[in-house]
Amino acid sequence: MPVKKIPEDIVVRDKCSVTVEKSLTKNLGNYESARISVAVTLPANPTSAEISSVKTTIEVADEIVTKELELQVRELLDDK
Description:
The protein is an alpha+beta fold.
């Protein structure tokens, strides 16, 4: 039975993805530290539109997370 050959660009786009994650822990002194992590998963050979969308999404997510973190830190310090 012959094997059906699927065009390589379809195989790569539909089956492969790459995830890159980086994190940093910064010592703030007085036994405190802050950790920042960023991860992105993209299909192999992402389009310009996908890359642009990821960059926009990171900016939106950063704003949401920063505001929530500030709120939770304020609540934590108010409880002391």
